[in-house]
Structure formats: C-alpha cells, structure tokens
Amino acid sequence: MEAPLSNLNPVMSTIDVINALDWQSFYKLLGMPTALEPQMAADALCSDGMLERNLPDNWNITNLGAILLAEDLRDFSGLWPKAVRVIQYSGKSNIETNRERVFHRGYAVGFEQLMDYIDALLPTKEVIGRIFRETVSMYSIPAVRELVANMLVHQDLAMTGCGPMVEIYSNRVEITNPGESLVKLNRLVDVRPQTRNKAIAAIMRRAGICEELGSGIRNAILAIESAQLPPPKFETLPDFMRVTIYARQDFKDMSRTDRLRAVYQHACLRYVLGEKTNNASLRQRFGISSRSTTTVSRLLNEALKAGMIVAEKPDASTRSRNYLPNWAASPPAQASDH
Fold this sequence. Notes:
single chain, alpha+beta, Arc Repressor Mutant, subunit A, 3-stranded antiparallel beta sheet, 12 helices, 36% helix, disordered C terminus
C-alpha cells in the first residue's frame, strides 16, 4: 500500500528538516554532491519526494523521507515500530536471547550499518586453503543482503505496531516482514513481485541497496546455490512473510524435505536463466561428485513423483534426461475434432 508514504509529518523549518534527515549519507550513496546549502539540500529532497514545501521556508517531511533517511525513526509518530529488530539467540530456539538491537536510522542511510551488524553475528568456520587457513561465513552474505533488502521493500507499512525482524539462531537465520507475500511462494523465482512500496523500491535501487525489481529472490537463491548451501524456505504466515536461510551443511546431512526443495528451486532458477536441470547440474549445485549420480537420480525421481518437476522429454533415458519446474510444462495437446 502506497498511502502511508504520502502522509506528512509536522511543519518544520529548513534547518530542522536538514538536521532530522541524514541527507548527506543518502546523496553519497547516489554519488551526488553533499556540499549543499540547507535550502538547496531541501529543494533537492523535495524533488525526490522526501519533503513537501509548506511555506517558502517551511517543510513537511513525508513518511517516505522519514523511513528512508531519518536520523532517528523515533522522532516520527507512527514510524518507530518500523525500525528493524535484530535478535541473536544462544541456540536453535528462542528461549535464551544472546543480544538484541533495534536500528532506528532510516532504511537507506542505515542499511550498511545494519548489514555490518548482522554479518558480525553470523557464525564462521575455519577452513584450510592451499597455503593458509581462512575464515568463511556459514552463510552466503550476498544472499542475506538481498533478503534483508527484500524484507524492507516488500513489507506492509499499513500494518501498525509491528516491523521487520531478523532472528539469528545457531543453525539458521529467519527474516520476517509484516504482510503476506503478494506472489505465490512457488513462483517467487520467475514471477515479477507486486511490491506494496514502489517508491521505497525505486529509491533503494537508486542507492544501490537492492537490484532490479523482481531479481532479489532470484539473486539470493543463485548466491545460495553457488555457495552450495541448503535451500532457503519461504513461508506465508497470518499477516507475515518469513524467509529462513540455513547454515552450511553437507548434502548427506540435509533432510529429504530440504533436498527436494533444493531440486525445485534449482529447476526454477535454471529455467529462468535459460539453462538445463539434470543430474550433472544438481551434483554441482550440491557439491558432490559423479560417484553420487545414482543418489541424485533417485532424488530427481522423488521430485518427479511429487509433481515438483517434469521431464522435458519423458522418453529420454534417465542419464540424458533434462527437467523443468512443474509450472513450465507444456499443456497436453488437444485432440483434433477431425
């Protein structure tokens, strides 16, 4: 819903609105000059929809300007619940909280600080390289970034008293936003999303925080596959959407459900990218060798029987068979009347 973004906050002077918004950080993100006189800065913010002129020297900060550029969202009535909460738990449940922080800066100007904080909380492991040991994250940082940005852009701002939240457990990260998905969960990769907040999405893209509309989920899954991590899980709960991403895990330790979900997402992604899904592509996705060809064939057959994928050419041999996501299958030919 766009309406909340057009709402106006109380009348303020030029100096007051300049001090309430971190406009310099915003224009740095855009690669624009920041050495502007207050009046010039206010005029520029007005042209971007962040301010609305009230009198020659007085302004109203729009909710769009506040939620993206605020120095502190608590200064804006009705918007403080939209601040991002990040909670880290000690284990796999939410019984014991390790630390919690609320980010009160606007989404655009505070995004890098938010991501630096999340990144620092994500578990790492030490791996032995060819020469040195190196520390790697148990998650795909690009995927986390895409999904956090997606959470901010696609939330339902009309829902009061709640906001976006990132919960970090010992084995997973849950990213939750108010508002159910406007797209069916099994079509998130190929269908262009119907965002509730087009103005926020446009500004976040200009600032380089999120990609072209419709590519966020796709890019996140691509990053997760490239890192050979377990597939993310997308859920629509009453009034909320949640994405769960999982820590690094070997194929042999993945559950049957996770493996099948990985097959489906892999088929969707490959189809959208114009590539084939087959035994070899899945082995590469899971990071397993050709010795696991039989195991992957069984997994493909399970996904086939579950109706998640279809064979591109059913008559082809199992070894050379390619697969499509179920929604990409050609409809059966109609019988002729003649």
